[in-house]
Amino acid sequence: MVFRRKDIGNSNIHYRFYPFSTFLEHQRRLGFEKITLFGGTPHVWIDAYGATDGEKIKKEAEDQGLSINGFMPEFSSMRYTLGSEGGSEQKTWEYLRRCLDFTAKLECGSMIVTANGYLLDRTEEERDRRLKEALRRLGEMAGSYDIRLILLNQHEDATNRIRTIEDMKRAMEWADGVNVEVGVDTASVYEAGETLKEWLEAFGTRLTYVNLSNSKFDGGRYYWGDGYLNLRDVLEALEEGAYAGAISCHYMIRDYLSKPWAADESSARMISWILEEGGGEHGE
Questions:
Q1: 3-state secondary structure of 151
Q2: Distance CA 35, CA 242 (A)
Q3: Among 139, 151, 191, 234, which residue's beta carbon has the most beta carbons within 10 A?
Q4: From CA 72, how far away is CA 114, in angstroms rounded?
Q5: Which residue range(s) make up the domain with 109?
C-alpha cells in the first residue's frame, strides 16, 4: 500500500478519564505520529467565555514527537451546535470564534465540525435554510483565519443534517465559493448503506479528512479489532481512490474509557500488520 503507518493518526476522544499527558505518552509508545485533537474536557476547555491555551497544547504534543493534523470542537452535547436556536445560538457563534482562535494557535490548518443540533419539529426546509446560512458564515469566518473548515458526516444522530452522500452534496452546493471541505466518518458511511468508494467518487479532492472508525451498525464508533468492517478494504478503497488527505482513528464507546490504550493497541497492531510495518511497542 502507498499509505505508511505515520500517515494515520489517532484521536484523544476516548481518554476522557485521563489527562492529556497520558494520551500523548501512549501515542508515542504505540508509534503514532499525528493526532486529531478532540476539544473536550479534561484535555481542552472552550466555551463562549474562554479557552485553553492552544500554544501550550501544541507544545505538549510536540514534546512527545507528535503533530496535530486537525481540531474537532466538542459538538457531542446540545450545548453548542450549528443548529442552536434562541439564546444558545449567539453563544454558539462566540464558542466557534474561540474554537477558530484555538485552532489558529495549534497551527494545524483545519477545524472539523458536524452539522448536528437541528430540532426535529422544524420543517426540512427550515433546517436546510439554517444550515446553509451557518455553513456560509462559518466558512467565511474560518477563511479569515486561513483555516480549512471540514464538514463531517454523522449518521447515528437524527439531529444531524449530513448523514448521506446526497446530504453532503447539498451542503457543498450551499457552501460553494467558501472555505468548506468534506470529511468522512467510515462507520457512518457503511451504516448509511453507502461505500467509501462512492464518497471518493462523489467528492474527489474536496474530501480531505477521514475519520477512521469501525462499526457494529449500532451507531457506535469502534476500534479496529472490535467491529465488523474490514480495515484492509477501507484502506484499499482510499488508495484506489487516490486519497491524499488526513486520516485519523476515532472511536468512542463507554467500555473503552477505563483503559483507552487497549483500543489504541489493537488498532496500532492491525494498521501495522495491514501496512506490513512494525510500529511501537504493540504495533508489530
A1: strand
A2: 22
A3: 151
A4: 9
A5: 5-275
pLDDT(59) > 70 = yes
CB atoms near residue 178 (< 10 Å): 16
Task: Give the three-class secondary structure for 123.
Answer: coil
Q: 59: which DSSP letter?
A: H
Q: Is the pLDDT of residue 1 over 70?
A: no
In percent, the amount of the chain with pLDDT more than 90 equals: 93
Look at the chain and report how many structural domains it folds into.
1
Q: Is residue 215 part of a domain?
A: yes
pLDDT at 77: 73
> What span, in angstroms and rounded, lies between the C-alpha atoms of 152 and 127?
17
Confidence of residue 180 (pLDDT cuts 50, 70, 90): very high
Residues 263 and 13 sit within 8 Å (Cβ to Cβ): no
Question: Does the pTM of the predicted model rise above 0.85?
Answer: yes
Query: Is residue 283 assigned to a domain?
Result: no
More confident residue, 267 or 87: 267
Specify the CATH number for the domain of residue 260. 3.20.20.150
Q: Is residue 96 part of a domain?
A: yes
Asked if the structure places residue 284 within a domain, the reply is no
CA separation for the pair 24, 26 (Å, rounded): 5
Cell of 161: 443534517
d(CA 170, CA 156): 19
Residue 23 and residue 70: Cα distance in Å, rounded?
Answer: 16
Q: Please say whether the dihedral angle defined by the alpha carbons of residues 86, 92, 97 and 98, taken in this order, is positive or negative.
A: positive
Nearest residue to 11 (alpha-carbon basis) of 51, 70, 57, 54: 70
